[in-house]
Amino acid sequence: MYRYVKLLLLVTISITFMMTSCSCPCEKEVSGPDEIVAQAQIGLDVITSGELKVMMDSLDVFYLLDVREMTEYAYGYIPGAINIPGGVLIFRMGSEDFWDNEMIYSPEKTDKLIVYCKKGKRSVIAANYLERLGYKNVKFLEGGWKAWEMAYPLEYEENLDALGGGGDDHADAGGC
């Protein structure tokens, strides 16, 4: 009998040790930003420039979030877009004060949110973050601003006054 108790205790300790050693919350190291974006994109909904244009023309209600930096935004943006640079979005999106300062209603968790950046990578990260915050209807614009600009070269707005007369090096700003 004593032998069975020792055996049972040994098996229990072994199983406990194996279960706790396998539950390491460690994350796999990534090779670079492209891999981070690829992982963040898994399960996200995407929208094309054409689909976005149809939504705009049909007067569908949605938030269009441009996560590029202000200097990039000033040189051209999709009509109706709200400029919230990626870092600001990540750290202030959930704050009612942020939306009050922007004089925009805070989006509900079920509202349609479409996110775009220059080429699509930053918007993937932002869309992934928004979904993690609990927003249920988030999409990112495939190809970003560049795809929109190529498809609809006359359908954009700009605000060069926001730059205060500077910023000729906008072509490389923001990168992705």
Commentary on this structure:
- The chain is of the alpha/beta class and 176 residues long.
- It has a single domain (33-162), classed as Rhodanese-like domain (Oxidized Rhodanese, domain 1).
- It has eight helices and five strands, in the order ααβαβαβααβαβα.
- It has helices at 2-21, 33-41, 49-57, 70-74, 86-92, 96-102, 121-132, 144-151; strands at residues 45-47, 63-66, 82-83, 112-116, 137-141.
- A five-stranded parallel sheet has the order 1-5-4-2-3.
- α4 (70-74) links the parallel β2 and β3.
- α2 (33-41) packs across α7 (121-132).
- It is globular, with a radius of gyration of 23 Å.
- The N and C termini lie far apart (69 Å).
- Residues 7-11 have low confidence and may be disordered.
Features:
176 residues, alpha/beta, 8 helices, 44% helix
Write the layout of secondary structure elements.
Layout: H1 2-21, H2 33-41, E1 45-47, H3 49-57, E2 63-66, H4 70-74, E3 82-83, H5 86-92, H6 96-102, E4 112-116, H7 121-132, E5 137-141, H8 144-151
Helix pairs in contact: 2-7
Helix and strand element order? HHEHEHEHHEHEH
Tell me about the biggest sheet?
5 strands, parallel
Overall shape: it is globular
Secondary structure: helix percent: 40-55%
Based on CA atoms alone, the radius of gyration comes out at 23 Å
Helix-strand makeup class: alpha/beta
For the record, what is the CATH homologous superfamily label?
Rhodanese-like domain
CATH level-3 fold name:
Oxidized Rhodanese, domain 1
| Unreliable sequence segments | 7-11
The whole-number mean of residue pLDDT values reads 80
